[in-house]
Amino acid sequence: MTSVAPIDPDHPDARALIAALDAALAAITGDSGASSFAPDDVRGPRAVFLLARAPDGTPLGCGALRPFADHAHVGEIKRMYACPGSGAGAVLLAALEAQALALGYREVCLSTRRINARAVGFYRRHGYADAPAWGKYVDNPLSVCLGRSLVSRGA
Hints:
Blueprint: E1 3-6, H1 12-29, E2 48-53, E3 59-68, E4 71-82, H2 88-102, E5 107-113, H3 117-125, E6 129-130, E7 143-149
Parallel strand pairs: 4-5
Antiparallel strand pairs: 1-2, 2-3, 3-4, 5-7, 6-7
């Protein structure tokens, strides 16, 4: 069974998964996405960085949650990655959503590249719908912003 626990984003296992995410995104989109994430963003209040592990301790995936701009009730998911074929993605997403509720968020949002069809499909299958673009994603035809309410489903 996959386990998920908070970890510092500079832990070697977290850094290895972030590097794998960077490489995967660069191959799909031409941009690693690294410029949109700073480890300190998930070290503060109402933020967390999670790492998923296999029963033998092998790192399988990671994801972060941070406050979203000036919206106290919204958390932003960042640096979500699961090793292909590991099945950790759904477990990680559920853990991030549970953390969001525990931290007082009622909604979560994220942005990804439209060309990353696998990610867009994954989030849509898990109840994410188009959301208004924000910041650098406004009028950016390459990006898609997605979100979902957490309150309506209770977790």
